[in-house]
Amino acid sequence: MRITEHIKAAQGKTLFSFEIIPPKKGQHIQKLYDNIDPLMEFKPPFIDVTTSREEYVYIKKNNGLLERKITRMRPGTVGVCSSIMHKYNVDTVPHVLCGGFTREETEYVLVDCHYLGIDNVMALRGDAMKHEPYFTPVENGHHYAYELVEQINELNKGKYLHDIIETPHPTDFCIGVAGYPEKHLESPSMEADLRRLKQKVDAGADYVVTQMFFDNNKYFEFVEAARAMGITVPIIPGIKPVSVQRHINVLPQIFRINLPDDLVKEIEKSRDNNHVREIGIEWAVQQSKELIAAGVPVVHYYSMGRSNNIKAIASQVF
Ligand code: FAD
Q1: How many domains does the chain have?
Q2: Residue 244 Cα distances to 251, 270, 281, 310, angstroms
Q3: Between 273-293 and 308-317, two packed helices, what is the crossing angle to 10 degrees?
Q4: Ligand 1 pocket, residue 17 CB under 6 Å
């Protein structure tokens, strides 16, 4: 079922959802199930599964030199989606990236999703690779997420990239895109970033999921500005609980987001990471309650491979 249909069917009740990361190559999928199991009592209508960009590894050769190879440490997004969907009878949302994929490879991923009965995809550009100063697409890949949205939308109309195919069964993907309440780190201004968001929606995006934020006012202002610009699709807030002390430095560095001073002071005073975890849970509970009171369609949690703090939040909120 499409995310937009789930939202409609909920008739104003806020839904719970979360995002997981596929296990590293070589690990058993049971590890993932162990993380999902505790969250299923909160009845998520959908679970997002991230896609990781390719990265370089260096292999020592017999002559002592290092050989650079490209690899994916966490492949299998579509396979993980399929297994979760069948095990838990829940919709899954694979994240589809521009980075590292040609348009043809993207089409094959989408065809796989279609055959597996996956109805929703999250269309993202992806970040630059670790060694790159700027994002660079592969040859014949997309530069921006809006182009990926266009490709998915074309497929929904039954138009494949190169082949003339008479299709009685076109795809009908519901397309999610990313939004940034504190603007995307590369964007010159909030307004410019919002125009780019509008471009993704105009290209066919059905809903937006936001980057994490710790001050709900940032989300409320973002939604207001998006609505003023004519963006009418659901805007789902993304919440991440702080769980270790170093998050107060790492999260702003990676995502260019601000942490409210009250939260920072609490964490600075904390005794240890168990205490930080409790502070993070309490903060996320308060954020979630306020968002629900404001009538958001879904609260979406970034689990980052750990479900115990998400469970602690959900059990106080849902
Ligand atoms: P875009 O919308 O393409 O925007 C990228 C930048 O380009 C922005 O600064 C934008 O303002 C600008 N821009 C857009 N269009 C144009 C244009 N036409 N001309 C000039 N500038 C333009 N990353 C992963 O690797 N895997 C994941 O699974 C993943 N999941 C995510 C889920 C969510 C909910 C969010 C919020 C982010 C996720 N990311 C993921 C991170 C995301 O890939 C990065 O934030 C990335 O840097 C931008 O992706 P985007 O889709 O927002 O890009």
Answers
A1: 1
A2: 11, 10, 11, 14
A3: 40
A4: no
Q: Which atom of ligand 1 is nearest to the CA of 144?
A: 3
> Residue 317: how many CB atoms within 10 A of its CB?
19
Q: Residue 40: what residue type?
A: M
| Token couple for 187 | 């964007």
CATH number for the domain including 204?
3.20.20.220
SS3 call for 308: helix
Give the three-state DSSP class for 311: helix
Tell me the CA–centroid distance for residue 146 and ligand 1, in Å: 9
Give 113's contacts (C-beta < 8 A, 6+ positions apart): 78, 81, 94, 121, 171, 173
- Look at phi and psi of residue 136 and say left if phi exceeds 0, alpha if psi is from -120 to 50, else beta: beta
Q: Is the CB of 132 under 6 A from ligand 1?
A: no
Encode pLDDT of 234-287 as tens digits.
Answer: 999 999 999 999 999 999 999 999 999 999 999 999 989 999 999 999 999 999
| H-helix or E-strand spanning residue 202 | helix 190-202
Work out which ligand 1 atom sits closest to the CA atom of 176: 34
Please provide residue 49's backbone torsions phi and psi, each rounded to the nearest 5 degrees. -125, 120
The CB of 187 under 6 Å from ligand 1? The reply is yes
How far, in Å, is the centroid of ligand 1 from the Cα of 95?
Answer: 12
Q: Which residues are CB-contacts of 139 (< 8 A; sequence separation ≥ 6)?
A: 102
Is any atom of ligand 1 closer than 6 Å to the C-beta of 202?
A: no
Beta bridge partners of 18: 47, 301
Range of the domain at 217: 3-317
Please name the residues in contact with 235: beta carbons below 8 A apart, sequence gap of 6 or more. Answer: 179, 207, 208, 210, 222, 223, 226
Spans in the chain with pLDDT lower than 70: none
